[in-house]
Design brief:
- The chain is an alpha+beta fold and about 140 residues long.
- The mean pLDDT is about 90.
- The protein contains 3 helices and 7 strands.
- The chain has one domain: Nucleoside Triphosphate Pyrophosphohydrolase, CATH 3.90.79.
- Helix content is about 20%, strand content about 30%.
- The termini are far apart.
């Protein structure tokens, strides 16, 4: 589903930057795909980007958050990992999950906490690889 504000060859999403105490970035892999990406997803009709992300993090990772836990980082664009020829246009938020432990649920097959070095052995979505992998 594309957003009316997005071009026909782009996909609008909300994405999370979630890091742990060691500074590693949380990445997820959806069922039937090979690329690891930031948690998040596409909006339902009428949803704002922050509401979309809170819903997606609950559905995919079992996290219970509200919009106050989100820090807007801006809009970022990169090649879509799983849809060749498309761009992903992401409203990205830094997310404080407190003491919660994310658990792969819904369409998520796997989750990993990674550094840039660890990610070099993975197929990482361009959005995460370009903008959000930690340097350590």
């Amino acid at each position: 589903m594309t957003d009316a504000a997005a071009s026909p060859r782009s996909i609008r999403v909300s994405a999370a930057v979630i890091t742990d105490a060691e500074g590693r970035l949380l990445l997820v892999r959806k069922a039937g795909t090979t690329a690891f990406m930031q948690p998040g997803g596409k909006p339902e009709p009428g949803e704002t980007p922050d509401v979309t992300l809170v819903r997606e993090l609950h559905e995919e990772l079992g996290l219970r958050l509200d919009e106050a836990a989100l820090e807007p980082l801006g809009e970022f664009t990169a090649a879509a990992a799983n849809e060749p020829g498309f761009l992903v246009v992401a409203d990205v938020f830094r997310v404080d999950i407190g003491g919660q432990t994310p658990v792969a649920d819904a369409e998520i097959d796997e989750l990993r906490w990674v550094t840039r070095a660890e990610a070099s052995d993975l197929d990482v979505a361009p959005l995460a690889a370009t903008y959000f992998l930690p340097d350590a």
